[in-house]
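stage 2 :: seqdesign
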């Protein structure tokens, strides 16, 4: 009887440890490791997206996020760094129009932000909240809401993101966000393809928007399952190159 009692206690403790709910922070930490996103902080990454070339250099907290494209016969380079925004035309500094700098900066930041997710989800301004779990196409997911503090959250600090993180593999297969620029709206991204480059996971997405603008962000996964979203684009990164910096 004594041994049965001890076994019962062991099973009870083991079950509680197994069923212990992870925190939003623990889930994101695991996702960053599994995705190899922890390697991004000291790296140089190149890729092509649509008609532009992008590259990012990150090292010891210093960063340069850039894009380059051809405009008529000119080569335009736009760079966002710790020092602000710079624009070059054929390699020579260009006096950018002040009213456009914010738009350029946000656009560059956005592409680079999405390219290396979940890297960045432990930034100082990020606030994490664990939502009730979700099942999409038979797979169980943790559901994490991300908001940003005004201090350090950038101009778009009011944007809200939700990430669906696989309960078994801790990979992000779906994400959604609401935004306020250009009239605002909501988007839901669905994994299209994934690849691994030097241990870092990169993801291409199908990009959807709700048919009904009243669909709440928190329920947009249900809207997807019920065919209530419309595909508007694809997010595809090409020719990805990664170099790690010492």
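stage 2 :: out
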């Amino acid at each position: 009887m004594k041994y049965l009692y001890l076994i019962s206690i062991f099973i009870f403790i083991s079950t509680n440890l197994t069923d212990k709910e992870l925190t939003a922070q623990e889930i994101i930490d695991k996702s960053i490791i599994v995705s190899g996103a922890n390697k991004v902080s000291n790296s140089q990454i190149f890729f092509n997206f649509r008609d532009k070339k992008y590259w990012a250099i990150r090292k010891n907290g210093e960063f340069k996020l850039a894009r380059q494209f051809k405009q008529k016969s000119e080569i335009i380079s736009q760079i966002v760094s710790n020092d602000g925004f710079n624009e070059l035309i054929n390699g020579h500094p260009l006096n950018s129009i002040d009213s456009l700098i914010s738009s350029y900066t946000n656009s560059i930041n956005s592409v680079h932000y999405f390219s290396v997710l979940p890297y960045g989800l432990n930034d100082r301004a990020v606030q994490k909240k664990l939502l009730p779990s979700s099942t999409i196409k038979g797979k169980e997911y943790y559901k994490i809401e991300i908001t940003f503090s005004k201090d350090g959250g950038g101009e778009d600090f009011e944007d809200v993101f939700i990430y669906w993180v696989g309960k078994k593999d801790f990979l992000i297969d779906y994400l959604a966000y609401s935004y306020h620029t250009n009239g605002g709206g909501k988007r839901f991204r669905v994994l299209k393809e994934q690849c691994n480059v030097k241990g870092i996971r990169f993801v291409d997405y199908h990009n959807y928007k709700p048919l009904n603008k009243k669909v709440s962000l928190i329920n947009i996964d249900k809207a997807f399952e019920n065919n209530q979203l419309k595909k508007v684009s694809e997010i595809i990164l090409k020719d990805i190159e990664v170099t790690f910096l010492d």
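stage 3 :: structure notes
- The chain has one domain: 23-244.
- Helices lie at 2-19, 24-35, 98-115, 220-225.
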